[in-house]
TrEMBL record:
Similarity remark: Belongs to the type-B carboxylesterase/lipase family.
EC number(s) reported in the record: 3.1.1.-
Molecular function GO terms recorded: cholinesterase activity
Signal peptide segment: none
Record: active site: S195, E308, H400
Organism: Citrobacter amalonaticus
Top-level lineage group: Bacteria
Carboxylesterase type B domain sequence ranges: 7-328, 353-474
Record keyword Nucleus present: no
This protein's name: Carboxylic ester hydrolase
Keyword Membrane: no
Length: 502
């Protein structure tokens, strides 16, 4: 057994000294790949150069370049300093760990343009107190993470454009190589993430490069936007280079563009919040893989929130206009949609619910059916809890991302929740964190129920079941059968139609 007072570990790359807080060992700023700078920009991550002396791992690393104000307002807090040298991770582990513990690896959200593994909502102490090892990572964002240009073709043995996904794969390989030294079980790794992090997990479940690197998946508020085809990504890369005055750009010229020049770019040069399909990392689009039931087989927990449309308003989507567009174009039966939303009045509210379900809720239904095709269990949820003091602020339900500090049991650390939560909110969050840890510890092909305040059954053998977390914004749990089934069936057909058009 390791000395519980000394957070010293010996990794494949060298020794690391962390810190101790509340009987939890913490290591921050651990490099999992070489800095992707200079000639290594827009290349697959390379191995870390080993070190000889003990490396201090007490400070978080720099995050990838991004908009700090945007991240502070929407991404979970202050990400700290920025650098292209950003491929680092953080580990929380109980000081006393006599046997290998389940590992939970977190991929942060932020539309692939903001965020960091060091943000306050992602503090791993509360989960580690439940006897798991928690890992959070940074990865390349924006154009540094997803990029295609003819000048870069042929540089690698394979065609690669999804550098963000390759970073995440490199971090998972680091976990397989090293997490045993931190008390983790290399045969029980759960990958969990929200929004772009959830979308990353779906992509990794569809990627041949990620097979075998994780064993379970928790997908929080993943979204249904189609991947960016590689042909379009190449066109976008050419246009971006020309924006910087580089017609017929060389690889050397592209890599000479300052790293901080990309994130301030507005339309039409912003990246889509989706990976690129058609390279060696993601040969087929993620949605096509799940529609065909060809994803990597593993237990999955998936769900979304009751007011996911909140994030669309942030990105300038006019919810009422979406309904008016359906009315003008007479597509997909607006009359049928109204039948599926009885009692919903006005285009704004109808748009809120339709956009939420098309972009977020339906994905859980699609993944559930894909899981049943490969014979793996799927636990589904619908998160509708709002802190007691904030029912007026969140009048339409739980916003996109609101579940994250409940999952991590970090309501007292995260903004703005730390300013208004009460004991009832904290008790409810503890139940959510327990469910997530129980999944990481126990979920398997033969497991049908997760323990908790309500026994949470998996969707297996054609059963469509879902746990409602929060009932009309109040504390409570309830199992529902065939949740929104008619809506989900319609919107799945809409999704497949759009994928086929693409």
């Amino acid at each position: 057994m390791l000395n519980p007072d000394i957070p010293l570990v010996d990794t494949k790359q060298g020794k690391l000294m962390g810190i101790v807080q509340d009987d939890i060992h913490i290591w921050r700023g651990i490099p999992y790949a070489a800095p992707p700078t200079g000639e290594l920009r827009w290349r697959a991550p390379q191995p870390v150069t080993p070190w000889q002396n003990v490396r201090q791992a007490d400070l978080f690393s720099c995050a990838s370049w991004q908009d700090i104000e945007y991240c502070q307002a929407l991404g979970g807090g202050d990400p700290g300093a920025f650098s292209e040298d950003c491929l680092y991770l953080n580990v929380w582990s109980p000081a006393d760990r006599p046997q290998p513990l389940p590992v939970m690896v977190w991929l942060h959200g932020g539309g692939f343009t903001i965020g960091a593994g060091s943000l306050p909502p992602y503090d791993g102490r509360a989960l580690a107190h439940r006897n798991v090892v928690v890992v959070t990572i940074n990865y390349r964002l924006g154009h540094l993470g997803f990029f295609a240009h003819p000048a870069l073709e042929g540089e690698e043995d394979e065609c690669v454009n999804n550098f963000t996904l390759l970073d995440q794969i490199a971090a998972l390989r680091w976990v397989q190589e090293n997490i045993a030294a931190f008390g983790g079980d290399i045969n029980n790794v759960t990958l969990f993430g929200e929004s772009a992090g959830a979308r990353s997990i779906l992509s990794l479940m569809a990627s041949p490069r990620a097979e075998g690197l994780f064993h379970k998946a928790i997908i929080q508020s993943g979204y249904t936007l189609p991947d960016t085809p590689r042909e379009i990504a190449l066109e976008n890369g050419i246009a971006l280079a020309e924006h910087f005055g580089l017609r017929d750009a060389t690889a050397e010229q592209l890599r000479a563009i300052p790293a901080d020049a990309f994130w301030p770019l507005g339309a039409p040069f912003k990246i889509s919040p989706t990976p690129i399909s058609g390279d060696a990392v993601l040969p087929e689009s993620m949605l096509d893989v799940f529609f065909a039931g060809k994803q990597h087989a593993m237990p999955v927990l998936i769900g979304s929130n009751s007011d996911e449309a909140s994030v669309m308003a942030v990105f300038g989507v006019d919810l009422a206009e979406q309904i008016q567009k359906l009315r003008r174009e007479r597509r997909f039966g607006l009359g049928l949609i109204k039948l599926l939303y009885p009692g919903v009045k006005g285009d704004v509210e109808l748009g809120r619910q339709v956009c939420r379900d098309m972009a977020f809720t339906t994905l859980g239904y699609v993944v559930m059916q894909a899981q049943q095709r490969v014979g793996e269990p799927c636990w589904r949820y619908w998160f509708d809890y709002v802190a007691e003091a904030e029912h007026d602020t969140y009048a339409n339900g739980a916003w996109h991302g609101n579940e994250v500090p409940y999952v991590f049991d970090t309501l007292t650390l995260a903004e703005p929740s730390r300013n208004y939560v009460n004991e009832n909110d904290l008790a409810f969050a503890a139940h959510i964190a327990d469910y997530w840890v129980n999944f990481a510890r126990n979920a398997c092909r033969d497991c049908e129920v997760l323990p908790g305040p309500v026994r949470w059954p998996a969707c297996i053998r054609g059963r469509d079941r879902l746990l409602r977390i929060g009932l009309n914004k109040f504390a409570g749990f309830k199992i529902e059968n065939r949740f929104m089934r008619a809506r989900m069936s319609l919107f799945k057909r809409v999704m497949k139609h759009h994928v086929n058009l693409d």
